[in-house]
Design goal:
The chain is mainly α and about 150 residues long. The chain has helices at about 5-30, 45-70, 70-90, 105-150. The longest helix is centred in the C-terminal third of the chain and has 45 residues, at about 105-150.
Length: about 150
């Protein structure tokens, strides 16, 4: 069976982006949620969790669309966007929206740590995917230039 190595590399990173962003989308609600709302009192981390949930849905939709777009230049732009959103997500808990003051709270021990880990991984996969597309575009440019020289 003949496998197109370039297509295989691209498809692997596309699927990894989708799996990671989907896992984060589910995880932010069920696996590593922020502190629960108790009575009438809402802690700061509640709002950080709400924003992270919205951002995780955005990343999942972006990754799903990324999987089906055939144009490499558009995919490269989407990789840059995904990396930017991932960096923003890393800044939300504790920096943009403050978390609970106690270091024993679930938001500090779970949500912020897992957000950092998953978003760093997402940035690395998006960077690898971008590198593949830039390498492919560079190779096509050299092929066109060489073909133009022969004429």
């Amino acid at each position: 069976m003949i496998v197109n190595k370039k297509l295989f590399k691209i498809l692997i990173t596309d699927i990894l982006l989708l799996i990671l962003s989907g896992a984060y989308c589910i995880g932010i609600r069920y696996l590593f949620p922020v502190c629960t709302v108790s009575g009438d009192k809402m802690m700061n981390c509640h709002w950080a969790g709400e924003v992270l949930s919205a951002v995780s849905i955005l990343l999942t939709v972006l990754s799903a669309v990324h999987l089906f777009i055939p144009d490499e230049k558009i995919k490269a732009g989407m990789d840059i966007t995904a990396a930017g959103i991932a960096v923003l997500s890393m800044l939300i808990p504790g920096n943009i929206i403050p978390l609970c003051k106690s270091s024993e709270m679930m938001c500090r021990n779970g949500t912020s740590i897992w957000t950092m880990i998953i978003m760093i991984m997402l940035c690395l996969i998006a960077a690898a995917d971008l590198f593949i597309y830039l390498q492919s575009a560079s190779g096509q440019k050299h092929k066109r230039k060489a073909a133009g020289d022969k004429i």
